[in-house]
Design goal:
single chain; mainly alpha
Length: 267
């Protein structure tokens, strides 16, 4: 009898647990489902985020300091194109002119006819012609004078080829500084907003204008300075290679003139 009562007590306890826990689990499942539905529904009901600003909108938010940066970008593009056109090899070292000078330098049949070579080069005004012409005009003079004339003319032509490259270097140096100035002005604007309006600390939209100006001008300055600096080094390297080739051509010509007695004896 006692065992029978204990058995029923155990059965009753188990039944109570099943009856009590099942509804609780169902309720929890329903609550969880409702919560999920609420969350999903809330996410679906959230308004779509505003589209990202276009490049033009970002540039407008950069403030008045964007105007000198626009000018810097125009200067970089203009001088980059100008240097790319002016430093073409065919303009500095025209193939037909180089071939004619090398023909004279490699000819071993007699002295250099400076007058005839000057006539052949008269119609061309490329840098290599101006350098060679300076040497030919000193033909039959001491070797030191010929070399000095060619050296001076070569230095003048090299400086002329490098001249506009300096504009790219200046643009690459000034553009980041303009961007930095825009950053300072933008941060001053943001702090002035905080100082004048107490609620600005909790409202990012009130600070956005100054922060936009700070970041956009910095980015614009770097976007101008980086390609300007790259172009500067590209063109400077090209000038150096062209100048070295001009030196080789003129040295061969001077050696040819010297070897066949086309210069006056020094002293």
């Amino acid at each position: 009898m006692k065992n029978w009562r204990m058995r029923w007590a155990v059965y009753g306890l188990l039944g109570w647990l099943v009856i009590g826990v099942a509804p609780a689990q169902d309720a929890a499942s329903v609550d969880a489902a409702d919560a999920d539905e609420t969350t999903i529904g809330g996410l679906l009901a959230m308004p779509e985020e505003e589209g990202e600003p276009t490049v033009l909108e970002l540039l407008r938010r950069g403030g008045p300091l964007m105007y000198p940066l626009y000018l810097a970008s125009f200067i970089m593009a203009a001088f980059g194109i100008e240097r790319a056109i002016s430093l073409q090899r065919r303009k500095i070292l025209p193939p037909e002119i180089v071939a004619r000078i090398r023909e004279v330098s490699e000819h071993r049949g007699g002295p250099v006819d400076a007058e005839q070579l000057l006539k052949d080069l008269a119609a061309n005004e490329s840098p290599i012609v101006r350098v060679v012409r300076a040497g030919l005009r000193k033909a039959y003079r001491p070797t030191a004078e010929i070399e000095k004339a060619i050296e001076d003319a070569g230095a003048k032509e090299a400086a002329a080829m490098r001249r506009n490259c300096k504009v790219l270097s200046i643009t690459a140096s000034v553009s980041p500084l303009l961007g930095l100035l825009g950053t300072v002005v933008g941060m001053i604007k943001a702090f002035m907003t905080v100082a004048s309006r107490e609620e600005a600390l909790g409202r990012t939209e009130l600070l956005a204008s100054g922060i936009y100006q700070a970041l956009v001008t910095t980015a614009a300055g770097l976007c101008i300075a980086i390609p300007a600096l790259v172009l500067y080094y590209i063109f400077v390297d090209k000038v150096e290679r062209l100048v070295n080739e001009m030196d080789d051509i003129t040295i061969d010509l001077v050696e040819r003139m010297t070897a066949f007695g086309d210069v006056a004896k020094e002293g």
